[in-house]
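ingest -> validate -> predict -> emit
validate: passed (alphabet ok, no gaps, 313 aa)
predict: started
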Amino acid sequence: MHPAESRDLWHLIETVHAVGYFAPSCREANAELGFKGFWMGYFGTRAAPMGRVGAPVVTATFAGFDPAMVARSIPDAWDHVAPDDAVQGRATSAAGALREAMPDCEDLAESLLGVLDKAIEVCEAAGRPLFAANRDVTPFEDPVEDLWQMCTTLREHRGDGHVAVLTAEGVGGCESHLLALASRGEDSGPLRSARGWSDRDWVDALTTLRVAGVIAPGGADGSDAAPPSALGEQPAGDVDVESLLEGLQLTERGATLHAHLEERTDDLASAPYAAIGEGGREHLRDGLIPIASAVVEQGWIPFPNPIGLPQVV
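emit:
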C-alpha cells in the first residue's frame, strides 16, 4: 500500500473519534461525570486510559499544549472523576452521539470490529503510550462503543507516531502549529485559543522558524518581513501576535520540511492498514464513510478546527 492511504483512512477514523470533543451531548456527559469545564473534560477523558497520570505525562504524550494549560486540569481531574469511570463514560457518550448522527449504525459498526481488531493487534506498542493505553481498554458490550474505542486507538497510534517525528526533527509544539497554519493558510485565532501558549511563546516559535528559514510572514521570500532579531527583542505585550501570524507562508525549505513530517507520519501510521490488506482497507473505508458523513452532516465539527481534520466526506 502507499503510505498516503493511512492518511486517507485517518480522515475517516478521526471524524468518528472527534464526536467525543465536538458533539454537544459528549460535552454535557463530561460535565455530568464531574469534570469542571471543557478542558478538564478533554484532558481527563483522553488521558484516562493511562490511569492517574500527572500533568507532565499528559503534556509529553499529547504534545502541542502549553504545560501550564494542562496543569490547570491535571491531576485535579482525578479528584472529580476516576480514570476507569472516564474511560467508560467517554465511550458511552461517544456511542450515543454516533447513534444520534446515524441511528441505524449498530450493524455497520459490528461489521467493522473484526478488521479494526486485526489492524490494532499487529501494531508495535513501543514508543506509543497513548496507543498502548487505549489498546489495553477492555472491550465493551456495545458494538458502537467498541467501534469508537477502536477508532480512537488507531487515532492515537498515528498521533504517537506524529509526536515521534516532530521530536526527531526538533520541532516543538508551538512551532508545529505554525507550520500547520502556514501550510493550510488558516487564521491563527482558533488554534491559539485552543492550545494555551502565551504571546511570547508564539513570537519565540515564529522567530525560531524564521531563523531556520522555513517560514516567512507576508511573503514566501520574507523580503517584506521584520528581521527575526527584532521580533525576538520586543516585549510580548508590545507585539500584535494576531497580525504577526497573519498570512504566514512556508518557504521552499519549509514546504519540504512540512512534507517530510507528514510523509514520515504516514509511513509510521501504515502498519495497521498494511496488515489488513487491500480488501480490509476497502471494507474499512466503505464502512466508515457513511458514519463519518453522518457525523459531518450534524455540523458538530467546525472546519477548520484545532485538530487539523479536513472535511473530506
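Residues 219-232 have pLDDT under 50 and may be disordered.
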